[in-house]
Amino acid sequence: MVWVKKFLIFALISFVVMQFFRIDKNKAEGDYVQAFLAETNPSDEVMYVLKTSCFDCHSNNTNYPWYAEIAPVSYWLDDHIRHGKGDLNFSDWEDHKMEEVIEMLEKGEMPLDSYTWVHRDAILSEDQKSAFYDWVKQYRAMLALGDLPQ
Description:
Layout: H1 2-18, H2 34-40, H3 44-54, H4 73-87, H5 97-107, H6 113-116, H7 126-145
């Protein structure tokens, strides 16, 4: 039982010390997805999906929940955001990324389950997925015709 007490004291001290090592927050000034929105022209329904299910981890501006201030949860969130932006960053938009967006959505890999556990509004309905697919088809057609806004 002595080792359990020592372990708990060590864990508590470690937890307190971790609170002094903060993450750099993913917060940009200004309109951080303007180029993406201007080029792809999402409908209101698709824009809602992007805001609730995508932009927090895949743009240069994250809306952090209250528990993001508590280590080690903050470290875990920071890791997710860094990986998310590394794979796709709507703030640094590239046309060919649309294929990856659809692929992840079709496989059910996005949004992550760990994100939707807390952000219930990020769970996509079939209607939302359908609107998203239609938007991507429209964007692909515009891209093929070279008819994108400048």
